[in-house]
Amino acid sequence: MDKAIIINENDNVAVALCDLKKGDSFGNTTLKTDVPEKHKLALKNITSGEKVIKYGFPIGIAIENIKAGEHIHTHNLKTALTESEDYIFKGDFIYSPHKSDLTFHGFLRDNGKVGIRNRIFVIPTVGCANKTAVDIAKKASSLLGITDNTVCALTHPYGCSQLGDDADNTAKCLAALCKHPNAGGALLVSLGCENNNLDNMSHFLGDYDTNRIRTLNMQECDDEISEGVEIIKSIYAITKNDKRTEQPIEKLTVGFKCGGSDGFSGITANPLCGKICDKLTSVKAKTILTEVPEMFGAETRLTERSINENVFNSCVEMINGFKKYFTDHGQVVYKNPSPGNKDGGITTLEEKSLGCITKGGFSTVTDVLGLYSPCKKSGLSLLWGPGNDIVSTTNLTCAEASVILFTTGRGTPLGAPVPTIKISTNSSLYQKKKSWIDFNAGTLLEGETFEDAEKNLLKLIIDVADGKRTLNELNGYEEIAIFKDGIIL
Known about the structure:
By secondary structure, the chain is α/β, with parallel strands linked by helices. Helix content is about 30%, strand content about 20%.
């Protein structure tokens, strides 16, 4: 295996593929310092104030003179980001998808949407009902002989003592989960006295099948567990008759997420997801990219791919709106990366963002989605929301992602209520955490071609859509977190 890799011919840094020692050589460069695996080394002398280039783009500014062969990280590199940028529309970006023979087997819903699972969610309208929801799901599963977590409680701490957007976001999130195509049915469990009561939830649910989405008011029944179990049994009597049928690939919606990123994220797993994104959007499937703060510093590479000026303006509004969210709270927009990211070789937010957005490949941006809005258009949609792992996976789920591709260099067991395919950026993580990782993209550093890796990952996605369970499903790792930006009474 090579000692380091140069990502773009215009780069003035390389990334170490293993721990390098002072005196080691890479090409014409002799190392003047040790360089840890996944970290950067200078390929030429870089003067203080000069841009450091990776992925062919600046990732920050040198804060001291750096000699060729020296380690580049937080001690000699800083971000060049500011709170505001100018964005210019350069014309429509062409989107010309074509029909495909690629199919999967899913559950066709009455509204024309297709799920890849047929689950029953037990959802408390308020945190006070969390334990009741869990007990209902467990007892119903036991009585029905269900052992695969088909009936699942999705708990959260909100639903009362919230105001304004926070209160609405809680209701929007829970309504979206109830109506997700992967849910054959749902039970909303209400305490009865909360702000987010069943009358409030009905407003956000809109039209729905009252046989598949049911409600329970705990304060109005004698035995909420028994009554809840009976409701689940009646929903299951309907959903057990649902059958998978062959569906065109355009009915699939794939969300992209990265968490615990490292110096290999933008070299292996993320660009591999980008190729999958391009493949899917080319055949009319829907894809979703989120984590807005991890677009900062690389956002022009997304905005310039807007299908038209309206979408471009929505992209700019989303970016500037999220920057304002930071500054309104007295925070700088470039607080990222996390300590784990830095340990893994990522120094600045620009560097993290340039690696992060490669998950969107070169696909045309066809839509910009608000929080808890469903994805409606083929192509690549950008979804408003933070980079936080559990909030992001919840947002993607509520945008009706059928499945989520989650890349990681550090590792995490986290899973969404939809199948979450974990993709490791390196083979050592895959070998260490085989109970977490579904797919190893580290083989791309060991001779496998992107073409072969893309075929293998696409096959896994189709297999999962057809019913193969991901490790998060097998382990029961399924959580939600509702975005909050206000006070609690």
